[in-house]
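Lecture 7 notes: from sequence to structure.

We start with a single chain of 328 residues. Read the sequence below before looking at the structure.
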Amino acid sequence: MKAVWFDEFGAAADVLQYGEQPTPELSANDVLVRIVTSGVNPSDVKKRAGAFADLLDGGLVIPHSDGAGVIEAVGSNVSNRQPGDRVWIYQAQYARRFGTAAQYVVVNEERAPLLPSNAEYGVGACLGIPAMTAHRCVFSNGNVDGQTILVTGGAGRVGYYAIQWASEAGATVVATASNDADEKVCREAGAIALVNHRDPNWSVDAVSASNGKKFSRVIDVEFGANLPQVLDLIQTSGRIISYASMTEPQPQLPFLRMMYLDLTVQLVIVYAMPEEAKRQAVADIEQFLHQGRLQHRIAARYPLADAVKAHEKIEQGKCRGCVILDID
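Now the structure, written as tokens:
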């Protein structure tokens, strides 16, 4: 099969290889999926760059956890999937060497939910990390109906879905964005107001945008960099849920101030979500896809052979939407 892989860490142009690899073998609990699209996420480029020193201990890695395609064969113990099913894939390259940057992948049937016929394969490649992370950020401690929620980076891969999940669930959502185009996208997703996070007083603007009401929940794309402002706008006993802290990866916490606010801080990564949370996210995604209630942003698409360009696009840090590889 055609595939992209790396067997050493480094820059995309230096280490990503394109060529032939063996088609993976099917086991009893797995499905063999012919991949149509592969999603590229920041975690994929971090792994390739060397974020996990032992990743290559078992040999070469075919990257990417997200994707979509068609089941070609099922294992002897598989009962809920059959050849011809359209599926989307998550966690393909988590605690495993072989992901979706290839013509075929073998995954456990639970990691291959059905993709409704009204959703194209590009959409399927957006769902694993972006949509499931956003779902966990919004619903990790129950119903958000009636809450006032701030989503920072609302036009980003996760933030865009978080706005939709929260507003559809009955929350009042304010988001941050830095330009008119992103503001328009966030409003279309369900945000009632936008503030510019490049303004030094954006926390004041955010509270004003919610009619003077501080936020019960903040879903945050830059935990360390945004924390001083977030502490100015969050309610006592509020909840900060963050899935990234790229600017300040080792933030210093003002413990006493946070303690006296009785805050809860939750850090989210989709791989470590409880299985029940994953199943609920999958069920809600399936329902919303069937009903046409989720919007999606695809920023760029490349052929599999141009995986280097896709990784570099992610690393530029300016993507407003998902980056996808199309696989013949």
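The two ends are 11 Å apart (CA to CA). Keep this in mind for problem set 3.
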